[in-house]
Design goal:
37% helix; five-stranded mixed beta sheet; Nucleotidyltransferase, domain 5; 10 helices; 12 strands; disordered N terminus; 2 domains; alpha/beta
Amino acid sequence: MTEQNKSSANLVFAADLGGTHLRGALVDRDGVVHTQSKQETPKASSPQCVIQALRKVADECQQRLGVESLYAVSILVPGTLDSANEIVTQAPNLPSLYQFAFKSALEDTFGIPVLLENDANAAAVGEMWLGAARGAQNLVCLTLGTGVGGGVILNGQLLRGTFGTAGELGHTTLDAFNGPNCKCGNRGCLEMFASATAIVRMTRERLNNYPDTILRDENLTAAGVYEAGMQGDELGIEVFRTVGAYLGAGIANLINILGPELIVIGGGVANGWRLFEEPMREQVSQRAFRAFTPAVEIKPAECGDNAGLLGAARLAWTPEKFQI
């Protein structure tokens, strides 16, 4: 980086404030990630601890590159924001931020414009900018991780809804009367069938039916279930078939309601694509409107863990309307 670049504000500090890890990066206008840093997300009861952690990660990134100034700060929150994207209205894994005026507090700390965005919304923007959704204008991005997040882009713009909470696709109902209880207060949500947490739960629930399974580890993980399935373990295969079936039913609902041209599936669970793709597509073909469903493309995400960071940076470069 030249001395001219160092002294000019042509980098955005983008940070993904996850429930487990805080990841930060400096990203330029072309989507090039110049440096990244990661630490554990603070669990303290004070929002100031979160702000200090973000400041620390930003300082580390700037010092690494010798950068003195930034164009903006863009923070991803694993929860919902108010309609003005200034106050955190719900963040189950970060309770200290509940109803906290996060944006103004961050701007006081950094002294430059700050953008807040839902993490799944940003992932959709990142995939549209530099990933699997390049060129699309109407798309849905599902992020299958510990939970299930969603971002919807219609006519090139994020769908936010009246209260800024549109896109909570993981909490659409698939089994209203017999499904497992969800932490959101509902039961039978998509998240209860297509997340990493759901994979571990469903595996444990079915252990007694598969006496020969290798999946009896107390420290069971979704990745371990996938690996067992790829090795031919019948329980691992069955669990991922269940994931695919429910995911397909959920996608069919989204196709019928929103009419997208593209569905992008990201997050760690998407690594199980080879095991859940077939039952997913079977359910989509059976349940979505058949007149236009064949034209809807369903594909895995391409930006990996950086999708949200890239989306955050992209939104920060267009602060006037927060459009793509």
